[in-house]
Amino acid sequence: MAKKGKQPKQVLSILVIPDDYSDPKNYRIKVRTLHILYIVLAFLAIHIMTGFVYYYKYYRTSQQKEKLLIENYKLSEENKQVKTLYKEVESMKVFFSKVRAALGVDKKFDISDKGREKLLVNLQNSWDQFPMGYGGEGSSGKNVHMEESALDFFLTRSESNYHRFADHVPTYLPVEGFLTTDFRRNDWFRPDHNGIDIATSRGTEVRASADGVVLFANWTDDLGNLIIINHLNGFQTVYGHNQVLLKREGNYVKKGEAIALLGNSGRSTAPHLHFEVWKDGAPVDPKKYLLAFQIKDNE
Fold first, then answer.
1. What pLDDT is attached to residue 75?
2. CA gap 260, 246 in Å, rounded
3. Strand partners, 12
4. Judgement on whether residues 156 and 227 belong to the same structural domain of the protein
5. By Cβ atoms counted within 10 A, which residue in 99, 181, 241, 253 is the most buried?
6. What is the DSSP code (8-state) at residue 143?
């Protein structure tokens, strides 16, 4: 049997013919080597494409990471501000709760004696029967003064120039009228009364006793429409049972400026103003300041 002859190796010939008439050059490359070269080039191409994809993903991830770090920093700063504001709000709540507790806003106030206010209603119905010396429209008295009658006292305002030198001291009488209930503390037989009650006509303008900022202007069960003004030097003044409030919380008011209209709101039996003066967190007799300039004027 005849033997099969060996197959010739497949070779790729590349003939290069120069332009300068020199001898042509022939390059011979085995087909197997060419296949290997194709495989290597394909592998390199796949590697380059894969590297490009991963590099692009890495770039996008790094960009997102940088944005997240910036946003995280902003959120951290905002969180610090929120915590700071929260602490400030909490401290303000504590402060206002202490102020309200000190001023007795959250406590029950003792109102005027009902029997005396019933007498006052009858008195107002027959106003013209009282002499002019009680401080009515024809009264010649200009200082804050108290004149005793069979029922009550009548308070009129002082026009003293000394008011201008004590803007933040509550020396200005909020309303003119009858003193129906006086300041009362540590009385064995009667409950404490932290201010004075002044009765006059409904709708009378209630005026600020001193310069200050409105700390509270809202409704309470006991004193109805209530205004509390904070002054300098530890003074606060309280105006209760108003019909209408003319100022809001945060408003700055001047001494003698109208802040409300007198009424009968809350736990009250007749139109009157409940007026208190607090000094360094404790109630004091308002007459101590309302009558201060009467002495100076009389001197």
1. 86
2. 5
3. 29
4. yes
5. 241
6. S
Residues 180 and 33 both lie in one domain? no
Q: Are 269 and 160 within one domain?
A: yes
Give the mean pLDDT of the chain. 76
| Contacts for 250 with CB less than 8 Å, ≥ 6 apart | 213, 214
On whether residue 159 sits in a domain, the answer given is yes
> For residue 254, what are the domain limits?
114-298
More confidently predicted of 191 and 139: 191
For the four alpha carbons of 264, 268, 269 and 274, in that order, the dihedral sign comes to: negative
| Pair of tokens at residue 261 | 């209209």
Let me know if residue 199 belongs to a domain. yes
- Distance between the two ends of the chain, CA-based, in angstroms? 159
* Calpha distance 165→173 (Å, rounded): 16
Instruction: Give the residue carrying structure tokens 């290997």.
Output: 36
Q: Are residues 157 and 288 in the same domain?
A: yes
Q: Supply the CATH number for residue 202's domain.
A: 2.70.70.10
Q: What span, in angstroms and rounded, lies between the C-alpha atoms of 200 and 179?
A: 9
Count of alpha carbons within 13 angstroms of residue 145, beta-carbon side: 18
List the one residue out of 287, 296, 299, 297 whose CA is nearest residue 173.
Answer: 287
pLDDT over 70 (residue 223) = yes
- Paired residues of 239 in beta bridges: 227, 275
pLDDT digits (tens, 9 = 90+) for 59-91: 888 888 888 888 888 888 888 888 888 887 777
Domain final position from 20, 55, 76 = 76
154 and 210 belong to one structural domain? yes
pTM of the predicted model over 0.90: no
Those residues with Cβ within 8 angstroms of residue 160's Cβ, 6 or more apart along the chain or in another chain: 143, 293, 294, 296, 297
pLDDT number for residue 163: 63
Phi-psi region of 39 (alpha: psi -120 to 50; beta: other; left: phi over 0): alpha
Domain count, the chain: 2
- CA pair distance 13, 133, nearest whole angstrom: 139
